[in-house]
Structure formats: structure tokens, C-alpha cells
Write a structure and sequence with these properties.
Nucleotidyltransferase, domain 5, about 20% strand, GIY-YIG endonuclease, 6-stranded mixed beta sheet, alpha+beta, single chain
């Protein structure tokens, strides 16, 4: 049904603010928009044909219209943002972080908070810091909070009634809130507050508090504790001095946005400035299909809405162009942040200088994405989406393979591709533990175990989950993978199998395999991932076999490690020499206890 057939329905729309939703003939939402006056805004689409190709495609696909009336434009903007996130309509500008950033979560929503590494920021009452790139920086910072402030790292339910603390207390990495006699709730609350200041980058304030604490305990002649706080102050001071000091302190807290839009899509650069320092640069990207026909202001408007859906906005946001719905956007951001937020266009001075810097970074990032190689990778991923009939483009793909030799030393491997390019830093390898009751691992049980372990871990870490999972094998291996998905409640994940010999792609919901042309970029992408997973698995399997072959039977004797094994073989010349040795000879070499263990081991029936 073309847009003209909705003329009567449009004429009856209310002259109030709200959200309108266009649907296609299948009932799927294809566009969500907001309006100050619903009737006027939707009526404008009647004469919009020929504006740009994206608008023409939208108008030709519209088959239904739904509206939701709100009390204000601000409420309409919030509802629009929620519906776009929930339904992912194909004609809205959809942006995503170009990298999978790691954050640190201080679980202040728990009675005894911890610091965790997470990939997702949620509005759950916890305190989040970051993003951190690379991820190891987040893990190092988390470890520092354990060492400096004694924040716990365990998963126990803390009641304070534990009889004795664990090893973490003994090595001074936890102040043991599990034992009330060692750490009161007030003391742990101070440690949590110190950690929050540290993660928030409020180092000057933290140093002042630690210095006061150091003097107090020194006056009380608790010199060991005073030395601990002295070392903590030095560490925080070192980190503070290493921080980047871009621009001037008078710029305060603000975020700076700049965008580059073109035929290859769109790139938004976000510079986050806190206390006069640029603390992070975040890159958002959008595909060609969602930004086709949009200008810079449209992309920035969508970018701000989606960026602050899960983040708190600073008092000022700088953009290069005036946004059409600036007042509504400022009202929405102010309500979410609990204070006034202004969206401004700087014209001169330091503020304009930082905006120009963001613009240069956006242009550079766009040119990089638009290069020939990147374009070829994106084309392959898009071709794969069409060939498999996927609802969304598979930007992140994970591929699994199993390697074994006659059922021994079975291992699994997982490789990752993002936007058609391999991400070696996220490869994973697994030693298969379960034998499926057969006495030795088989390919199907091994595949199920590896997939289960991979996505159980992702559930604990909060993602990122792949858009597509590739299994090296046919229907049986694919069924094993889906069995793991089902056990974890991840039925929304999509997996395909790639058979080695025929190079056929099998899917669970299709009775016949998919035959792709040998020249297809999508097939080449799958083959490259399969071959890389196979190489990675075989390399790990060979390493495991080498370690097994280097093992000695002496390693099975309780109490005999590498050092004592070398001692015995050097003294007696060989394993047979150790077997023939008397108790007195063994005692002279390794002591009476180990000598008895060796004799008992070789006395056991084989």
C-alpha cells in the first residue's frame, strides 16, 4: 500500500506531539519518528517523493501507520529513542560503537560492592567507569583497586560471619569484609568510596583524603598502615601525572561531537572532556543503508540520542551544526542527568579548536573505513547477510573448530571477525574436558562443550555477542551448537555450518544446504574464518601433544614435580633406573617421604 493510500488515516491524526511508526506489509516497523504536531509531520511525507533515494525507498515500502500521543516533545523524543533501540527499524539512522569497549563496574547496588570488568553499561544503580582500551588496561585497573583499597574479588555472599579470611587477605589484596572482626561495614564503605573516587578520576580529592588518613594512623603509631596509605598516595599521584592534559582547565566537563557523512556511511567522533582533560575518544559508525540521504545534522541528532541512552550527559555538549530539535533534546538530556544540559555550537577559541580536532579525526576515520579493502570486507559481509537471509548485517562473526587425534588431546578453538576483518586479540582456545560418556571425546560432544563454555562466559561478562556463529562441520555439529544455545537460553543466536569438502553452508531452518558461487566474497569470508579456526585449533592441538609426549611417568607420582623428576633422572639415568633403585638409594636422592611414594606407585598393578 503506497503512502497515498494512508491519506484518510493521516487526515484524522491529532494535532499533538507524539511518535509515529511506519510499518511494511509484513507488519514490521521500518521507521520511527517524533513530531511536535503529528498530523503536520506525517502529512509532509505525502509530498516527499523524490527528495532522496532513501526517502523514496521508505515511501514505497510503507503499508501501515501507527501513532502514540505524548504530553510533550521531550517525552516524544524519549519514546522515539526507546522504540528505535527496541525495534531497530531499517530506515532509521542506527549507530554503534566501532569497538567493543570494556568498562569497570563498581557494584554499588550490592551490599558489599566489587569491581568487575563489563562490556555493557546499564542503568542498574551501579557505578561505571571507562571505557578502557585495550581490555587489559581495565583488568590492571581492577587489580589496582584490590591492592590499594582492598576491594573484594570473590563471588561470596558477604554476611561477616566467616570464620577466617581467605588467601586474598593474607596477601593484602582484600580487607576481608567477610569477617566482621577484621573489617567493619563502615571500613569497607570507606574503601568503596575511595575506589569510586579513583575510578572517577577525582585523584586530587582522593589524595587529600588518603593523606589525612595517613597522618591519623601515624599519630596513633600504626606505622605499617601509615606506610600502606603513603604507598597508595604515591601510586595515585603517579597515575594522575601520567594522565593526558589536553586543552585547558577552564573547559570543564563537556562532550564534543563531530560527524563525517558520505557514500560509505557515517562516522561520529566523540571527545569526552572531564575537569579540563580529554579522557576518552569514542567512535560511532553507521552503515550506508541507514544514513543514505541523511545530512550531518540528522546523523548527529540520532547519535546524541543513542549515545546518551545509557550515559549521563555533561553540562555542555558541543556540535558543529545547529540541530533542528535542540530544545527537545536539551530537555530530555536535562531530565535524565538531573541538571541543565546545553547543546551549543562553538564559534571561536579553545572550544572551537577542540571541535575542529574532532572533525579532523572523524574525517580520518571515515577515509579509513572507505578504503578499498574495508569496502570489500563490508561488501562481503552484506552479501553474506543476503545469502543467509539474516535480519541484520553480521558485523561480528565467531567461528569454532575442533581438533583431535584418535580421541586424545582434544581441543577447541574460536576465532573472531569484525566487519570482515580478523580480530586476533579475541581468539580463544579450549581443552575439551567432557567425553560424552564414550570414554573419549567425540567431535559433537566437544563442539557442544566448547560453545557452551564460550557463551556461558559471555553471559557472565555481558557480551559482546556475535551476530553470526560459524561451525566447522555439518548438520550434526550445528545441532550440537544449538543444543548449547538452548541450554543457556540463547535461542536468538544464529549459527551456520560449513562443510569442508563440498563447501556447502547448512542452516538449521533450511532442509537443503546453500550453495554459494566459488567467486562469492561471502563464501571467501566463511572459508577464511573456517581455515583460520582450523589453523588455530591444530596449532594448539600440536602444542598439547608435544607437552604430553614430554611428560614422564614420574610426573604421575604424588610429590614429584619437574625439579625432582630431573633430580631422579640425573641420578639414576632413566626411568628404568629409578624403578630398580632401592629405598635407601631413593631416600638419599629425594628423601624418605618421596621415596616411599615412588615405591608405592611402581608397586601398583598395571
Amino acid at each position: 500500500m503506497p503512502i497515498g493510500d494512508l491519506k484518510r488515516q493521516i487526515a484524522r491524526l491529532p494535532e499533538q506531539p507524539g511518535v509515529y511508526l511506519f510499518a511494511n506489509c509484513n507488519g514490521d516497523t521500518i521507521y520511527v519518528g517524533k513530531a511536535r504536531t503529528l498530523r503536520d509531520r506525517v502529512r509532509s511525507y505525502m509530498s516527499a517523493h523524490g527528495t532522496n533515494p532513501r526517502m523514496d525507498a521508505l515511501l514505497n515500502e510503507i503499508a501501515g501507520l501507527e501513532v502514540i500521543v505524548t504530553d510533550s516533545v521531550v517525552e516524544a523524543l524519549a519514546l522515539e529513542n526507546h522504540l528505535i533501540k527496541q525495534r531497530s527499524p531499517k530506515y532509521n539512522v542506527l549507530l554503534r560503537d566501532d569497538k567493543n569497549y570494556s568498562y569497570l563496574q563498581l557494584t554499588t547496588n550490592e551490599s558489599c560492592p566489587r569491581v568487575l570488568v563489563t562490556r555493557r553499561v546499564e542503568r542498574d544503580g551501579a557505578f561505571y567507569a571507562g571505557p578502557f582500551l585495550p581490555t587489559r588496561l581495565a583488568r590492571r585497573t581492577m587489580s589496582l583497586t584490590h591492592r590499594l583499597f582492598g576491594i573484594r574479588s570473590c563471588n561470596e555472599i558477604i554476611t561477616g560471619r566467616r570464620g577466617r579470611p581467605c588467601l586474598e587477605y593474607d596477601i593484602k589484596r582484600c580487607i576481608a569484609p567477610c569477617v566482621a572482626e577484621l573489617c567493619s561495614s563502615e571500613r569497607y564503605a570507606r574503601a568503596v568510596e575511595d575506589t569510586r573516587l579513583f575510578l572517577a578520576g577525582r585523584n586530587d580529592e582522593l589524595i587529600r583524603q588518603l593523606a589525612t588518613r595517613m597522618r591519623d594512623v601515624a599519630e596513633a603509631e600504626r606505622f605499617e598502615e601509615a606506610a600502606h596509605w603513603r604507598d597508595a598516595i604515591r601510586t595515585v599521584e603517579t597515575l594522575r601525572d601520567r594522565q593526558q592534559k589536553m586543552s585547558t582547565a577552564k573547559l570543564g566537563d563537556r562532550d564534543v561531537f563531530s560527524a563525517r557523512v558520505g557514500p560509505a556511511g557515517a562516522v561520529i567522533q566523540v571527545f569526552q572532556m572531564r575537569r579540563g582533560r580529554v579522557i576518552e575518544r569514542i567512535e560511532l559508525v553507521a552503515d550506508t543503508t541507514t544514513v543514505r540521504g541523511s545530512d550531518e545534522a540528522d546523523v548527529l541528532q540520532a547519535g546524541l540520542q543513542q549515545f546518551y541512552e545509557e550515559r549521563q550527559a555533561p553540562p555542555e555538549i558541543h556540535v558543529p551544526v545547529t540541530l533542528s530539535d535542540r530544545d527537545a533534546l536539551e530537555g530530555w538530556l536535562s531530565l535524565r542527568g538531573g541538571g541543565r544540559v546545553r547543546v551549543v555550537v562553538p564559534k571561536r577559541g579553545d572550544k572551537r579548536g577542540l571541535l575542529d580536532l574532532a572533525a579532523r579525526n572523524a574525517a580520518l576515520a571515515y577515509e579509513t573505513r572507505a578504503s578499498d579493502d574495508v569496502a570489500a570486507h563490508r561488501a562481503a559481509v552484506e552479501t553474506l547477510r543476503e545469502a543467509l537471509g539474516l535480519a541484520a548485517t553480521p558485523h561480528r562473526i565467531e567461528c569454532f573448530d575442533i581438533s583431535t587425534f584418535q580421541g586424545s588431546e582434544t581441543v577447541g578453538a574460536m576465532v573472531v571477525s569484525e566487519h570482515g576483518q580478523m580480530v586476533r586479540g579475541e581468539y580463544r582456545k579450549y581443552r575439551v574436558r567432557y567425553d560424552g560418556g564414550t570414554g573419549h571425546p567425540d567431535d559433537f560432544a566437544a563442539m557442544r562443550e566448547v560453545v557452551l563454555r564460550r557463551y556461558r562466559r559471555l553471559l557472565e561478562e555481558g557480551g559482546p555477542f556475535p551476530d553470526l556463529v560459524v561451525i566447522d562441520g555439518g548438520k550434526a555439529q550445528l545441532s550440537a551448537a544449538y543444543g548449547a544455545f538452548s541450554e543457556l537460553g540463547l535461542g536468538n543466536l544464529v549459527a551456520v555450518g560449513l562443510a569442508k569438502r563440498e563447501e556447502l553452508v547448512v542452516m538449521r531452518d533450511r532442509p537443503d544446504p546453500i550453495v554459494m558461487p566459488s567467486s562469492s566474497g561471502a563464501l571467501h569470508l566463511l572459508q577464511r574464518m573456517r581455515d583460520e579456526a582450523h589453523r588455530f585449533a591444530v596449532t594448539f592441538h600440536r602444542q598439547a601433544r608435544t607437552k604430553r609426549n614430554l611428560r614422564s611417568e614420574l610426573d604421575e607420582v604424588p610429590g614429584v614435580g619437574p625439579r625432582r623428576r630431573r633430580q631422579l633422572l640425573s641420578r639414576f639415568g632413566s626411568l628404568a633406573g629409578v624403578r630398580r633403585a632401592t629405598r635407601e638409594e631413593l631416600t638419599a636422592a629425594v628423601g624418605a617421604g618421596i621415596a616411599d611414594a615412588i615405591l608405592a606407585y611402581f608397586a601398583m598393578p598395571r
